[in-house]
Design a protein that fits this description.
Layout: E1 2-6, H1 11-22, E2 26-31, E3 45-48, H2 57-61, E4 66-69, H3 82-100, E5 104-108, H4 120-133, E6 138-144, E7 147-148, H5 157-167, E8 171-174, E9 180-181, E10 184-185, H6 186-198, E11 206-209, E12 215-216, H7 217-228, E13 234-237, H8 239-249, H9 259-266, H10 274-280
Helix pairs in contact: 1-6, 3-4, 5-7, 6-10
The protein binds NADP nicotinamide-adenine-dinucleotide phosphate.
Length: 290
C-alpha cells in the first residue's frame, strides 16, 4: 500500500515507518514546516504540512490508500490546546483523507482515553476517536499503554527513567510504587499497526495495545536498573506533598513530570490487549528493561 504517516518523525513513528518499509509499503511522511527534515527515516517521501493548521494535508494524502495519525502531545505546546492538536488535528487530517480518496485512517490514541477522563490529554484522545468515527472513513483506533524500545528520537518514558537510573544519585519512588504499567515494545506496536491497517475486519474497531505483563512501577525501575547494570537507589516521595508542589515544579524548565502526567501515572496504565494480539498475530515481547 501507499501509506501516509502523520507523526512519523516521533518516537513511535520511527518504528512504524521502519516496519511499514520493511513490509514493502510505500511511505509518505508529513513533516511540519519548522521541523528538521528527518534523514534517519530513510527513503520515504516527505510532504510539508501541519495537522493543526490544516496545511499540506490534501497534497500529502493524494494517492494514498491508507493513513496513520500518530500526532500527539503529552503536554500541550504553548498557545495550543490538547483539543487543537488531538481533536482538530484528527478532524483536519480525516477531512483531507476523505477528499483525497484515502479509504482508511488508523488513529493512535492512548490507554485511558475517556470523555470523562482525569486529564485534558485523555479527554482529547476520546474526542479525537469520536471525530474519526464520524469522519466517513474506515476508522481503526489503537490505544497503546507505555511504549518501550528503539524508535524515533521523540521523548519516551522508559528512556527518561533509564537516564535517571544511570545519572541521578536517586530515583523517585512515588508512594509504594505499586501502580501498574503494561509496557509494549515499539516493534510489537508497529507491526500490529501495520497489520491492522491491512486487515478488513479491523474497520470500526478499537484495540487496546499493552504488553504481556502488568508490572508495578517499582518492578519497571528494577528491570531498567538491571538491564543498565546499575544499582537502583530510590528516594521515597510521598504522593500528597508532591501533588501539592507540582503546580510550581512543572513550570521549571526541563522538569520531567507535570501534574497531568503524575495523575495518569498514579492511575495506572493497563488494558486488555487480547484482541490486539489475536487479530495481529504478533508475538508479545516481555519488558526486559531495555
Ligand atoms: N510513547 C508512548 O509511550 C505512548 C503511549 C500511549 C500513546 N501514545 C500516543 O502515540 C502517538 C505517538 O507518540 P510518540 O511517543 O511517538 O510522540 P512524539 O515522539 O512526541 O511524536 C509526536 C509526533 O507528532 C508530530 N506533530 C506534533 N504536532 C504536529 C502537528 N501540528 N502537525 C503535524 N505533526 C505534528 C511531531 O512532529 P515534529 O517532529 O514536528 O515534532 C512528531 O512526529 C501520540 O499520539 C501519543 O499520544 C504514545
Amino acid at each position: 500500500m501507499r501509506v501516509l504517516v502523520a507523526g512519523g518523525t516521533g518516537y513511535v513513528g520511527g518504528a512504524v515507518v521502519r516496519v511499514l518499509r520493511a513490509e514493502g509499503h510505500t511511505v509518505r511522511a508529513l513533516v511540519r514546516p519548522g521541523s528538521p527534515r528527518p534523514t534517519w527515516l530513510g527513503e520515504v517521501e516527505l510532504v510539508t504540512g501541519d495537522v493543526v493548521a490544516g496545511t499540506g494535508l490534501e497534497e500529502a494524502a493524494r494517492g494514498a490508500e491508507a493513513a496513520i495519525n500518530l500526532v500527539g502531545v503529552l503536554r500541550a505546546p504553548r498557545g495550543q490546546s490538547h483539543d487543537a492538536v488531538h481533536v482538530q488535528g484528527t478532524r483536519n487530517l480525516a477531512a483531507a483523507c476523505l477528499r483525497a480518496g484515502v479509504r482508511r485512517l488508523l488513529y493512535v490514541s492512548a490507554v485511558g482515553a475517556d470523555a470523562d477522563g482525569a486529564t485534558p490529554y485523555l479527554r482529547a484522545k476520546a474526542a479525537a476517536e469520536d471525530a474519526l468515527a464520524r469522519s466517513g472513513l474506515e476508522a481503526v483506533v489503537v490505544r497503546p499503554s507505555v511504549v518501550f524500545g528503539p524508535g524515533g528520537p521523540g521523548p519516551n518514558m522508559v528512556q527518561t527513567l533509564r537516564d535517571l537510573v544511570c545519572r541521578a544519585p536517586v530515583v523517585p519512588m512515588f508512594g509504594d510504587g505499586g501502580f501498574l504499567l503494561q509496557p509494549i515494545s515499539t516493534d510489537n506496536l508497529a507491526v500490529g499497526i501495520a497489520r491492522l491497517l491491512a486487515l478488513p475486519a479491523a474497520a470500526g474497531r478499537t484495540y487496546e495495545a499493552g504488553g504481556p505483563e502488568r508490572l508495578p512501577y517499582r518492578e519497571v525501575l528494577r528491570r531498567i536498573a538491571t538491564a543498565a547494570g546499575r544499582r537502583l537507589r530510590c528516594l521515597s516521595v510521598p504522593v500528597a506533598p508532591l501533588r501539592a508542589m507540582l503546580p510550581l515544579l512543572e513550570r521549571l524548565p526541563g522538569f520531567p513530570l507535570s501534574r497531568d502526567e503524575f495523575t495518569m501515572l498514579l492511575a495506572g496504565n493497563v488494558c486488555d490487549p487480547t484482541a490486539f494480539w489475536q487479530d495481529t498475530g504478533v508475538q508479545p515481547e516481555a519488558f526486559t528493561g531495555r
